[in-house]
Amino acid sequence: MTKELPLSVAIAAVMHNDCILLMKRERGDYVGYWALPGGKIHKDEHVSEAGIREIEEESGIPTEFESHLGLVSEHLIEDGNVQMHFLLHVLKLKALSREITKNDGGKMEWFPISKIDGMKELIIPSDLLMLKEMVFAQDSSKAYYECILEKVGESHIVRKFE
Hints:
Number of helices: 2
Mean pLDDT: 93
Number of strands: 9
Order of helices and strands: EEEEHEEEHEE
Helix content: 10-25%
Structural class: mainly beta
Distance between the termini: 31 Å
Low-confidence stretches: none
Shape: globular
Strand content: over 45%
């Protein structure tokens, strides 16, 4: 019996001055929620390259790699079973432009960092925790988190993020 491998994903906190780029999802899980943009890491690219490529493909915004903020091992649970296992590499990228020329995968928009707390019902729950614990945290010494995200009806509840 072969086991499915976790899906490796580059998730990018794209920053420009005091704003962060978020994407409103139009397909897959979490339709209608705001999220950190990103996507699958191809076998021939490094994590930093994947983050830069995904942001350019999804928004048209050129970026520069700043840092790898950490790794989140996320289990999506439904009916008590792990449906998906993601290895989320959380990156910090510097936007070289604020001009959004594409909206591939969902609407892209810049948000002032100061407004994020007021959007907690509108952001994917695990993405909100990544923002608080990894992107905006004053003490960013922790670089690995385990997350259990459970789907209950139409809602997603974070059962663990530590």
